[in-house]
């Protein structure tokens, strides 16, 4: 079964053709990041406009690269939540129009479910149940994936997502948006010499908080500039990355122990982080747990992951009508 998938929840316009939820026939991503960099973050209005301009071309390219015509497509999958509402609406309305014009079934996909499904594209042997850490620019969740379409949230951030903390702390350190990958690179050159907090959340063993860590970086930079002291940026990045790794790994391993999970999966843009990948590899190996991580090309937003999840949603009977709307915020 071939699914054409569309993703437009943030600042990438993406389309892909995926066969049986596992085989990527094409995967096209048009990034707007250079334009948003001018403003230090994603400007929602600009994102919507760029999606409008790009969505038709990106979809045609995905069909062309897969070597298929619209007639050979069995269903259309689309990200409908969560994300920037105006950005989501472009993909949703485009997919609805295409589904109506071609008389194909339309399958709505939750963006975080898509991030998790990115792992199915690279790991043929991976199937639920497993415990998944989803870390992106907008979300940080520990989720028990009991089946392809059933999920139980065990822990989550109470404030900033891990990627958001990377981007905001990075901005204060003088990196351009999105700062995650740049902090990661600098961290690999530095030594974690600065003391930063690892906040605990009252009343929950599995919830996380990143805003205090971000603020600690901002305070440290402000104090240093007031006193005219030099900050070693590589060392600060290494210290920040170590704190993020400590928080994520502590909560994930506690959740694994609690649920008795033997298989751990990581997903989302921040799963590209070298420190997180190395730390979770070591922790899982020490506990005899199997760890799956997406290849770097499927960590960030893309439509292939939406095509993978759309297949399993379709198999479980999920279909959208022409009443489908975009939703900015929606639990998994
Ligand atoms: O999943 P994603 O592409 O978009 C959302 O759904 O949010 O994640 C984007 C986030 C950004 O915050 C970006 O800074 C972060 O992923 N990111 C990283 C790395 N690569 C991307 N964070 C830390 N280390 C990286 N190597
Ligand atoms: Zn995402």
UniProtKB/TrEMBL annotation:
It comes from the Bacteria. Fe cation binds at residues 111, 115, 301. It comes from Merdimmobilis hominis. The lineage of its organism: Bacteria, Bacillati, Bacillota, Clostridia, Eubacteriales. Binds 1 Fe(2+) ion per subunit. This is tRNA N6-adenosine threonylcarbamoyltransferase. Signal peptide: none annotated. It is an enzyme of class 2 (transferase). Its main location: cytoplasm. NCBIfam families: gcp_kae1, T6A_TsaD_YgjD.
